[in-house]
Design brief:
Length: about 375
């Protein structure tokens, strides 16, 4: 019998760090502050809506771009939040999670040999999606403690093969937010070099200290060449539903939808209907989201004040970074394994988000957990 041989399209990839750390957390019964999912449930109204529409028989395919009422509610939310008026039928595409939207947007703009600039530490789906499209990810590193973008470095990295830039704000994993001055620098570059932009804004409603998130949607010049990605899972604590969307100008949306229809075609119909009602009736949930998570951030920060960790600023998302250089000489992967096995808390090492990791001794905690869980974890971490 002839032996089957197969050449991997992603030979350098293995099991994700999130699967690895969650598996270890389960094995050692550790408190899991590693993977970024809420410990608490979705809003009751949203769950009731899902059950209602399932029971009423809305269980078949939705239109590929999303049901029109949900598209309209997304457009209304965009206008309320950013003052931007869009045509929902031509610019809004509902997707099976934000990661699908990111994948499709990357496939849409990337041709073989194209270069796409990404900022490390970066969400781990960007690079594989670029490579599957035949492109090359150009990594611009940001470093602790401020994780600032060196715009001169970005400008120097642009070549005649550069096709686009991916930004992420509020940023996972650094928990930083892009400021207006940084958007001004970005605008200069994309305009000068006629670049496309993918803006990952899945944590858009989780920006702290009363400072509003700045969206590409609020800047007509940037939006004219952009795909803006959002997540219902992050906003409504329902990550397992895998519901997100992409907003882009009509011409870019047409190209996006050509690929989207052959990835998932359409997304979960009862969830689309339930989310439509939620957006129409429960805007308070969205406005309360930042204070809700800021309380959890502050609770965890306060509980860690007596520890030997250096706490880095968290301006948005539901993540907090800790520098452990005063505690251990271990590299961050080994230190996270130690935390799980010996301390009972699971975290994520920052080095996995880099192509070439710096020597920073930094780990990421997720505080989308019940208050008691956060306090228990902090008590364990302060013993180090």
């Amino acid at each position: 019998m002839k032996t089957l041989t197969h050449s991997s399209k992603l030979p350098h990839l293995g099991t994700s760090i999130f699967t690895t750390m969650t598996g270890l957390a389960n094995e050692y019964n550790a408190i899991n502050l590693s993977q970024g999912f809420p410990e608490f449930d979705a809003p009751e109204r949203l769950k009731q809506g899902l059950a209602k529409y399932c029971n009423q028989g809305f269980n078949q395919y939705a239109p590929s771009s999303g049901i029109a009422p949900l598209q309209a509610q997304i457009a209304a939310l965009t206008e309320r939040t950013y003052g931007t008026n869009i045509n929902p039928l031509d610019t809004v595409t509902v997707t099976s999670g934000a990661t699908e939207a990111l994948f499709v947007a990357i496939q849409t703009i990337t041709h073989p040999g194209d270069e796409i600039i990404i900022f490390d530490p970066a969400y781990d789906s960007y690079k594989p999606a670029i490579e599957l499209a035949g492109g090359h990810a150009v990594h611009i590193a940001m470093q602790a403690p401020d994780y600032a973008i060196d715009w001169q470095h970005v400008a120097a990295a642009i070549t005649d093969r550069t096709r686009g830039i991916i930004i992420n704000t509020p940023h996972n994993p650094s928990a930083k937010t892009l400021k207006q001055a940084e958007f001004d620098e970005l605008k200069k570059l994309v305009s000068k070099h006629q670049l496309l932009l993918i803006s990952d804004e899945v944590y858009e409603h989780i920006a702290f200290e009363g400072t509003p998130h700045i969206s590409v949607l609020s800047d007509p010049e940037l939006f004219s060449r952009a795909f803006v990605i959002a997540s219902f899972g992050k906003t409504f604590h329902c990550t397992g539903w895998k519901m997100g969307y992409c907003i882009a100008p009509e011409a870019l949306t047409q190209e996006f939808r050509k690929i989207h229809q052959y990835v998932t075609f359409s997304s979960f119909t009862p969830a689309q209907l339930a989310l439509t009602d939620m957006l129409a009736e429960e805007s308070e949930h969205i406005t309360a989201l930042a204070p809700f998570y800021q309380h959890k951030r502050d609770l965890l920060v306060s509980a860690l004040q007596e520890s030997r960790f250096t706490i880095l600023p968290s301006e948005g998302t539901y993540f907090l970074l800790l520098d452990y250089s005063e505690i251990s000489p271990l590299d961050d992967m080994a230190f996270c394994e130690y935390l799980i096995k010996e301390v009972g808390v699971a975290a994520i090492p920052l080095s996995v988000f880099y192509q070439s990791a710096p020597n920073d001794k930094v780990i990421r905690l997720c505080f989308a957990k019940e208050d008691d869980t956060l306090l228990q974890a902090a008590q364990m971490l302060t013993t180090l």
